[in-house]
Amino acid sequence: MQLFGSSGIRRVADKSLVELALKAGLAVGKDYGEVVVGSDTRTSSDAVKDAFVSGLLMAGARVSDGGVMPTPTLALAAREFQAGAMITASHNPPEYNGIKLLNSDGSAFDANQREHIESLILTDSLSVVPWDEMKSSGIHHGAIEAHIEHILRDFPDKLKLKVVIDCGCGAGSVITPDLLKRLGCEVVTLNCHPSGFFPRPIEPTEANLGDLIEATSELGADLGIAHDGDADRMMAVDDKGRFISGDKLLLLFAQQAEAKSIVTTIDASMVVDEIGFSVTRTRVGDIYVSEELKRGGDFGGEPSGAWVFPDSSLCPDGIYAAAQLTAIAGRQKLSRLVDRIPCYPILRGSIINEGMAVANLAEQLMALKPLSVSEVDGIKLNFADGWLLVRASGTEPKIRITAEARSEARAHQLYDRCVGLIGQCEGK
Predict the structure, then answer these.
(1) C-alpha atoms less than 13 angstroms from C-alpha of 110 in its C-beta half-sphere
(2) Which one of 340, 366, 386 terminates a domain?
(3) What is the layout of strands, in order, in the sheet containing 261-265?
(4) Which of 141, 163, 192 is the last residue of a domain?
(5) Residues 103, 225: one domain?
(6) I need a surface site. Which of 176, 242, 423, 427 has the fewest CB within 10 A?
(7) Could you list the active site residues?
(8) One domain, residues 292 and 209
(9) pLDDT band at residue 358 under the 50/70/90 scheme
(10) C-alpha closest to that of 395 among 272, 270, 228
(11) pLDDT per position as a tens digit, 168-183
């Protein structure tokens, strides 16, 4: 698909994105007559949203604007509508924006839906209804409170914990601090005022969360929590001030939920397969995890911080995950639980992609003599002592590289060999 990546439409916020948003609204409004729209805190969100809403209205749809809210909050609100649309670029830098399309069950538009919308846009098969068939737009009130109440029903006990929360000035700012306070926590906030000028890189990686790690340790907090721009992701710091990797969080949530079957992505640690779960692996991207969970599964997630609790919603919900992790910390110190989870050395990184297809690397990668190869997403080489995954990012112009092995030396060897092979290909 030319317009949709693994998590909706994303690109630098400029004239072309606003024009695209208008066409996307026309395309969505053609098939979905009742649509709720929300947005994150980016400076361009109102401009993109207004263009998208204009398209919806011109197509004859009725629109309700929920204002600034996280994606999982919009997903819950979409239950009252035929579809939902979130104006966000999630974890991309602040100069980006985009559109995520959601079904009424909270799941993202699947491949067939995305292809249909894209076809309408690219073939310019977009019509405008007569003036007397255009509907009105209105304000959708109460979505944030409804989301909080939805979560509180699953966590009725007061949690007497100290929690540090870093929302990155994104959409989580309008809900997670209040939710944690209502759960009974003492809450210390970092970057929890809504702003499109993100004070830290918005993706909640260890490298970007130095302030949260320091504050959690220095304040003696029970845990620290971080969101990305639209709060569909949640990452965390334990009571010892240590960043918890996404692979360990995946296993922690699954274990605490007593899950038997889980859905995760092809880039998750091989420990997942060794610990006793029935595991289904998908392409990288939470939309693929949610699609698979529709067919069954107790819990789903990916190491980037997207956690899907299907009994609550098919949308990754960083706010629900924050409540769940806080409840877990209320029963036992996170550091003890984290230390019990086995792990292998794993390296994740990326290289700016100037248009080279990952498929072009296949022949060179075979020189590493893998035992088997998977092409579920990019190229995954499996070895007796680890694996290497090379894939194109679905959200940014980058080649993603992941290597895991039973020893750190082997993980570095696989990763470094891959980087070298990419360099050779680029140099041709």
Answers:
(1) 10
(2) 340
(3) 278-282, 261-265, 299-302, 306-308
(4) 141
(5) no
(6) 427
(7) 90
(8) yes
(9) confident
(10) 228
(11) 999 999 999 999 999 9
